[in-house]
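ARCHIVE CARD
Drawer: 12
Card no.: 0347
Subject: one protein chain, sequence and derived structure
Cross-reference: see card 0346
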Amino acid sequence: MTKNEKTGKINKSDVGLFKKVRATVCKHCPACTQARKNPESIIGRILHHPSHSKNCPMWKAYEELFGENKTI
């Protein structure tokens, strides 16, 4: 996966299908959606905790594709 150096955007064609599927699962997951909307809630603190955020393949794919300051 490569980024455009000028814009910082990820080239959509360089993202693999499996990563897109994992990110989409996270994007539509009720728990993950709640955690992103309310990071100070109990579920938000659990899902933003490094033990989850560093090890969950869906969360990592979502952050890589749709996370803050990243656009496709």
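Annotation on reverse: The chain has one domain: 16-66. Helices lie at 17-28, 30-37, 42-48, 50-53, 57-66.
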